[in-house]
Design a protein that fits this description.
- The protein is an alpha/beta fold and 319 residues long.
- The chain folds into 2 domains: 153 residues, no CATH class; 128 residues, Nucleotidyltransferase, domain 5 (2-Layer Sandwich).
- It is built from 10 helices and 8 strands.
- A 5-stranded mixed β-sheet has the order 6-5-4-7-8, with helices on both faces. Strands 1-2-3 form a 3-stranded antiparallel β-sheet, with helices on one face.
């Protein structure tokens, strides 16, 4: 899990969308802002890793437009190289607007709406959102060692809502025939999710062992898939099927609240998510949930700081 805090962020001059538009109103200002955030005054060559304050600044038409030449490997570079902005013809101003809106809206924004807001095609907006969403992947850090709530949910349309020729028999409720299982763990206000093939005990226990420090408290409902958790953890099992939702002041309300937020976002904003891309959507909602204590401006900066991975269109649509 990646740890988000205000210490990770750059001091902002804005905490609202309208203020950001006023402050970063030109491509030049957006580029300088990104350079200060990522380089902190010392340009870093993405090709050889050289860090210098005095890399060559190349002028184009008598003006400096952000093109550098490394003093060591003599290769040209800009701040976009090595980030999700690399190879994109979209101005940074539009990228920044998309990132700010996407990271501050509690349930995200659809590609159709974003396309209208920043004046690009829907296909371009979808690709931009996919790139941003891809940077929200959590990093593996220390395991949870506090009381950890665990729960699983099924994402997919209800069978009775489908047209007759798309209905599949025996798929109501907890069925993996047409639904995808998402397993979630939440501790100290931080959540992480993982797509799993099923809800069998071996599957769920393996994820818990990978993510939770042995001997910690694990809180779950009464699902039989958690029957072996007590062997390595202090297991608090709460039998929801018996009408009990709190036991010794332990509950699973927080992780269930996250599922509610995720599903309302998928149904209300995105309407449908394929299993192929579902993990990225889960990471998106986890990012916003885990940074809920940050201001919108700090969350925007953090999104820029994590934008060091470039997702290509070929990788995105690869089946």
């Amino acid at each position: 899990m990646i740890t988000y805090s205000k210490s990770n962020t750059y001091n902002t001059e804005f905490n609202s969308l309208i203020k950001m538009i006023d402050v970063l109103d030109t491509e030049h200002k957006c580029r300088e802002y990104l350079e200060e955030l990522l380089w902190n005054g010392e340009p870093i060559c993405p090709h050889c890793g050289s860090v210098r304050e005095n890399h060559y600044k190349l002028k184009q038409g008598g003006k400096f437009k952000g093109m550098y030449k490394c003093k060591d490997c003599l290769t040209r570079f800009t701040i976009r190289i090595g980030t999700m902005f690399e190879g994109s013809p979209i101005p940074l101003k539009k990228w920044f607007l998309a990132i700010y809106i996407f990271s501050s809206h509690k349930k995200g924004i659809s590609s159709v709406q974003l396309a209208k807001d920043i004046e690009v095609t829907q296909k371009t907006a979808w690709f931009m959102l996919s790139r941003i969403r891809n940077t929200f992947q959590p990093e593996q850090a220390e395991k949870f060692d506090g009381a950890t709530q665990v729960d699983e949910t099924f994402v997919g349309g209800k069978n009775h809502n489908k047209v007759w020729n798309k209905k599949v028999e025996n798929t109501q409720g907890r069925s993996t025939k047409t639904k995808t299982v998402v397993f979630g763990l939440l501790s100290n206000g931080k959540v992480t999710t993982e797509i799993v093939p099923n809800t069998k005990g071996k599957t769920l226990t393996t994820v818990i062992k990978n993510m939770v420090k042995e001997g910690s408290i694990v809180v779950s409902d009464g699902w039989r898939g958690y029957s072996q958790v007590h062997k390595n953890y202090e297991h608090k099992s709460i039998p929801h099927n018996k009408g009990q939702y709190v036991k010794d002041n332990y509950h699973t309300n927080s992780i269930e609240g996250f599922w509610s937020l995720l599903k309302r976002g998928i149904l209300g904003i995105y309407h449908s998510v394929s299993p192929k891309h579902l993990q990225r959507y889960c990471d998106e909602f986890s990012f916003r949930y885990n940074t809920k204590e940050l201001t919108d401006g700090d969350r925007f900066n953090l999104a820029l700081l994590t934008a060091t991975e470039r997702l290509t269109y070929e990788e995105l649509i690869n089946k």
